[in-house]
Amino acid sequence: MPNINLIAEYYSVETNKRKMLNYDELDETDRQILKLLQENSQMTVKELALAVNLSTSPTFERQKRLEREGFIKGYKAVLDSKRMNQGIIVICNMRLKRHSQLLMDEFMEAVQNIEEITECYNTSGDYDFTLKIYTRDMESYHEFMRTKLGNIECVGSFNSVFVMREVKNSHGIPIL
Question: How far apart are CA 73 and CA 27, in angstroms?
Fold first, then answer.
């Protein structure tokens, strides 16, 4: 005879799973809130409510729901790299020594602990990864390549491109 408690528990767990919202289910007000917060995450709920023509309580609830649902991952300050004495931005395209899941995992784990690497993308095409690196000057970058990136055993080769001028950096994604 089956254990009724286990069966009941199984079904209650299954029925309590809530469906996560997808982007297409967001209404225009939700999208407007996302756009406004992406432009200025320090907006007060009152300012946000005024901008979306709602009272503060439903605006606050919508913002919290967007956070819970994972549309808003966090809030950060955008720092000026030059003021932080990290004025050189380098885009570094990197190849592994050979293609294997083990080497990919090794590299992805290694870059997590390298502060100068602020972005890392696993890419298709000629390179396996594209990195965004901040450094103080050419000497610092040379030292970084020699002592940090160059010491990752699975790195085969890399190609560095130095940013001459930042033309656009919105720190955001399109909200259509």
Answer: 19
